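Action item from last week, closing it out:
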Amino acid sequence: MRTSNPALKAFTKREGSYASKPMTLMGAINKSFLLLFILITAAGAAWYYSAQGQDVTAIMIGGAIGGFIVALIVSFVPKTAPVLAPVYAVLEGMFVGGISAYYASLYEGIVMQAVLLTASVFLALLLAYRSRLIKVTRNFRLGVIAATGGIMIMYLLSFVLGFFGVTVPFLHDASPVGILISVAIVIVAALNLVLDFDFIENGSKAGLPKHMEWYAGFALLVTLVWLYLEILRLLAKLRRN
């Protein structure tokens, strides 16, 4: 029931180390695949409606807003993950399916490229983590978290400033600087996968409660969606350039 991860120590102390049914590695993996299946199914439904000529703008907006709200709840109250993680997968799937259909209407083959690149990055980092080519040290974790927080703040500023007609320089441009920014964001998003792998592995060793399997799957799904969307944006910039 021991772990060197300070974040997991806090989780274990708060959630209770000796749950009657502790979190397991296979349990977290199974929950992750189930959530991914739900997301893909919902995304496929949104894509189908778009292909039928239906306007999926409302579905996209509803999925994005609903998914964001549910994600906040699960993040702050992990015990809700068994119920709300599947809900998040459905809502986020609606958004991902709609936005994918939009990009597909602009650039032929871009969605398949983004899916393949996301899957390739996921597998490559998983292999690198399992073979210990990448080690999650305290400095590594702090660096990734700090970079992720900076990106989130930048996106929030971009969203708020957009209401006043102000744009953040280079963030949405297809210029060389804009492309480099997107590449950097993709790298940070990818490195978050390593933190997710570390959480799943060490969480099972630390004896976290059973509901944390759903929380781990939810966290991994959030990262995968973010990585996919950033790769999609990067490919779109490269097509425009």
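Closing note: Residues 22-238 form one domain.
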